[in-house]
Amino acid sequence: MLIIAEIGQNHNGDMEVAKKLITAAKEMGADIAKFQLYNVDSILPPTFEWYKEAKEAQLSKEQVVDLADWCKKVNIEFIASVFDVERVRWCEEIGVKRYKIASRSIYDEQLIAAIAGTGKDIIASLGMYKGKEFPRIDTTGKVDFLYCVAKYPTAAEDLNFLEIDFNKYSGFSDHTIGIEAALVAMARGAKIIEKHFTLDKKMHGPDHIISMEPKELKQIVEFSRRFEKILYHP
């Protein structure tokens, strides 16, 4: 199983916090530390409730290089949700192994073409996708689709696990409060779990409340490893 600690904007623009989150993700056993790379003015209006916070958390190219280097130092994979073609170029310069396509970008043909053109593996969330079949992404890399619900936070009753086939979906991008949904998803066959990660849920910002703290990340990782051993190594 692949466990992704979605740091996203939870560093609140503080590079020391970002590095502490990377280190904690590694120490708790996550496979990937993930960030969001965007130009806030191209994706959010100034009237958006969390615009100021998103602006403060916007990473420069130099900061992205620094964080990717820190990931190498602590030996955890760096990936990002990229929201424009320029930031795809940043990631290519860094030498990322794979890309994440966020739910909000699933209809962005220019962005998807740029990512697909790298030939790297792709993980794509389908929370805002309206089609009956998975979207077609023409790439030589592997594409993994994640089930998610584009509500922040997602209520338990909004999940549709009984009808979701995790032989088709590779995994689950979790926006619920707590870790129970992630555990259920793994038990039902999800092989990738992505969940927001914070040092403290009481910190200011839009995503901290739906995030897991280090001890919860450790619980998810330990469950996934035990579950794998039971299921695949009798």
Structure description:
With 234 residues, this protein is an alpha/beta fold. It is globular and about 45 Å long. It has one domain (2-232): TIM Barrel (Alpha-Beta Barrel). An 8-stranded parallel beta sheet has the order 3-2-1-8-7-6-5-4. It has 8 helices and 8 strands. The protein has helices at 15-27, 40-43, 51-56, 61-74, 85-94, 109-117, 180-187, 214-232; strands at 2-8, 32-37, 77-82, 98-101, 121-125, 143-147, 171-174, 192-196. α7 (180-187) packs parallel to α8 (214-232).
Summed up:
The chain is α/β, with parallel strands linked by helices and 234 residues long. 35% of the residues lie in helices and 18% in strands.
Mean pLDDT: 96
Q: Based on the coordinates given, report the CATH architecture.
A: Alpha-Beta Barrel
Percent range for helical residues? 25-40%
Instruction: Tell me the domain tally.
Output: 1
CATH topology: TIM Barrel
Oligomer: single chain
CATH superfamily: Aldolase class I
Which properties best describe this structure?
single chain; 234 residues; alpha/beta; TIM Barrel; eight-stranded parallel β-sheet; 8 strands; 18% strand
SSE layout and pairing:
Blueprint (H helix, E strand, L loop, with lengths): L1 E7 L6 H13 L4 E6 L2 H4 L7 H6 L4 H14 L2 E6 L2 H10 L3 E4 L7 H9 L3 E5 L17 E5 L23 E4 L5 H8 L4 E5 L17 H19 L2
Parallel strand pairs: 1-2, 1-8, 2-3, 4-5, 5-6, 6-7, 7-8
Helix pairs in contact: 1-4, 7-8
